[in-house]
TrEMBL record:
Name the UniProt record assigns to this protein: Phage tail P2-like protein
Species this chain originates from: Azotobacter chroococcum
Length: 180
């Protein structure tokens, strides 16, 4: 039985092309590795993002952020238009946020508004362009009728240290006698 699918009336050129391209079918294609954001080679990540319909992609993002954006792409798209999707999209950028909707503020705010306080995580670029990328993704993910106010928060970490110093001191009692 022949392995080609050419019809009986195939031309000589079609048969020659089928014969020349036959070895290509034997090449191994690691599809599981290519479709996995953790094992996909870095130079192919933009194509994986495109196939998952990510709305934005920047080459200056760190590799870990690119992989996390791809990893969460399906879940974000599934819940687009909800507060959870806004939280997920910000966490995919390696940041955290405090989100308060209009009914959670005291006094109650204007309906269909919310406040976002973004805190950038460690290891992410702290540039205006990166922050604008996050704001753009919030705009694309939020409910269409909602509006938000944005505040950039800062986080700092520090530590307390305890230091001790030992200093040997020798005390000697001096006895003095009065002169007669």
């Amino acid at each position: 039985m022949s392995d080609n699918l050419l019809p009986p009336n195939a031309t000589v050129l079609e048969r020659a092309l089928a014969q020349a391209s036959a070895p290509l079918g034997e090449l191994p294609v690691p599809l599981r590795e290519l479709w996995n954001p953790d094992t996909c080679p870095e130079h192919l990540l933009p194509w994986l993002a495109w196939s998952l319909s990510l709305d934005s992609w920047q080459p200056y993002w760190p590799e870990a952020i690119k992989r996390e954006r791809i990893r969460q792409a399906v879940e974000i798209a599934r819940r687009k238009g909800t507060a959870k999707s806004v939280r997920d999209v910000v966490s995919s950028f390696g940041s955290s946020l405090a989100l308060r909707e209009w009914w959670q503020t005291m006094p109650k705010g204007t309906p269909h508004t919310f406040e976002v306080v973004l805190t950038l995580g460690a290891g992410v670029p702290n540039t205006a362009a990166y922050q604008q990328d996050i704001i753009g993704e919030i705009e694309r993910t939020k409910p269409v009728r909602s509006h938000f106010t944005f505040t950039l928060g800062l986080s700092a970490t520090g530590g307390l240290g305890l230091q001790g110093v030992a200093r040997p001191i020798v005390y000697r009692r001096i006895q003095a006698v009065e002169a007669p």
